Amino acid sequence: MSIxxxxxxxxxVQGITGRDGAFHTSKMKEYGTxxxxxxxxxxxxxxxxxxxVFNTVRDAVNETGANTSVIFVPxxxxxDAMMEAAASGIRLIVCITEGVPTLDVVEAHSYIKRMGAxxxxxxxxxxxxxxxxxxxxxxSMVFKKGSTGVISRxxxxxxxxxxxxxxxxxxxxxxxxxxxxxxxxxxxxxxxxMFENDPDTDSIVLIGEIGGDAEEQAAEYIKNHITKPVxxxxxxxxxxxxxxxxxxxxxxxxxxxxxxxxxxxxxAVGVLVAxxxxxxxxxxKSRL
Amino acid sequence: xxxxxxxxxxxxxTYGIPVEQSIVCRSVExxxxxxxxxxxxxxxxxxxxxxxxRGKAGGVKLANDEIELRKxxxxxxxxxxxxxxxxxxxxxxAVNIAKEFYVSYVIxxxxxxxxxxxxxxxxxxxxxxxxxxxEKIYKFAIDxxxxxxxxxxxxxxxxxxxxxxxxxxxxxxxxxLYKLFRDSDASLAEINPLVLTEEGNIVAIDAKMTFDDNAxxxxxxxxxxxxxxxxxxxxxxxxxxxxxxxxxxxxxxxMVNGAGLAMATMDIIKLYGGNPANFLDIGGxxxxxxxxxxxxxxxxxxxxxVVLINIFGGITRCDDVAKGLLEAFEQIRTNVPVxxxxxxxxxxxxxxxxxxxxxxxxxxxSKATRIxxxxxxxxxx
Lengths: 288, 381
Prior knowledge:
By secondary structure, chain A is α/β, with parallel strands linked by helices. Chain A contains 9 helices and 14 strands. Chain A has helices spanning 19-31, 57-64, 78-87, 102-114, 156-167, 188-197, 214-225, 259-268, 280-287; strands spanning 11-14, 35-39, 47-48, 51-54, 68-71, 92-95, 118-120, 126-129, 133-136, 145-152, 172-177, 203-209, 230-235, 272-274.
């Protein structure tokens, strides 16, 4: 098994005719993801890499039975795209778009929740269940099928960590990039719970960074609910306060959200924290 | 993006939130003129800078007459508060304070919504209150689909007041503050303190707003009043090139694709005994033009002794990245040693392309960092 996406995933791409949308549609299809359609208002009847384009998500869902959507539309239109997906019966919405206004995410997330669907992102690389399904922009060749679940707030840092795991013979069940914005959809706690319940996951790597207190909450949750070994890495030990480090959510405000606090929170509950990414495979092996 | 108190108060006024009469001034003469126009003998002179702690720094003073006003205006103008030089002061009517409160809206990551925060401990550093006496702060998560209806504003106002007339006044302010928070895509709208005057009126005597940078595209009027510091100007310039840059002050300049990896890179430099000069994320792709621009930015920092380029080739193939780097370094002539770490798709081909150059090439982050730290030490000696 794996979490959130697998062979039963039927994916549509919102913004399929755009540069990034078209490029990653081909990559996902090439990897074996079941991409059943895409949307681009006014372009129904066209095809991208032999995948049919629809005017609306509703048409795409009605015609293809899609259950998952990945969004590549520009930031000013991302809120609308997320809400359209939820309104049309999509169950898992993955928003790749960077730079979406926070209050747009707040509104879209609230609506998606009311519709009973799940959101991942925005400003995320998507997710990957090796040899089953790729939804998003992760580079498939660094992954290897296995039983370690990966949760991360970052993109290339995730690839770096996964690359290290794969090189050391540790495969992954599912890797999820939750996104680098202050407000995003599914986060550590929900995903930790899913990995705990996934029989094919035997360990978890959590890649956090400065800003907010989600890592501290995750540590508390791990203490009370997670039986599988967890290894963590926190980026931003050297980040100065008050400065946004690339990701909109990566900022130490009023002295809180520092790497030191997060590392201490994990260590206090027995989660091993790697000092550098290359330590992660050995720390994981020491717990398996 | 931050704005000044006087600018926030202008926005408050347009939404009908009561503020005391005040005038922004750029000189002592301006301040004297303003004083003659304010219907109050006593006035407060306040430094307008993009930082907190103005009072403690001596940037907020009460003047009882024109002589005192001149003295305080002259002292505060030109004052340095936490690295900011005061070029504007706000001269405002001194109100007779009976009690001070705290009201704000902020984005709350945990509830994934805006939250309304209130406290009877107004006028204090709210972070201190939150840390030491969290029970004195009341929080209400705002459902974005309904906003702040009357009942909710009333419920919140009852946390601060018992008198129904005061509750009514406060509830209106609470609703208006949410409206302006929402309308302007703020990430913070704060009144600290919100004051009950001895005359029984509720007035905002301070105002603080920050805005979501990602939403400025739809608020051109707000974007137009942005006043970036010198450091922020460099960051904004970097942003216009598609980078994220933060100056840190060390001797090893770094260029990385991806924000998380860029943070991990500055951390590993420190872990290995060096000092990162900056955080620089050049984004997912790494075309020659981007590398050239990024190198220029790094080399403009005279403290930089070594440049460490850390690229994880995911979607972008390493051989393409290597070609781009070669093209870039044909154009940039520099004596600063450059270490390149290249891993990912087609990494062997990529590293082979860089073999017979002056560039130091490494396969792993730790190896590249070790080389960069050693080179930096050699440069120091």
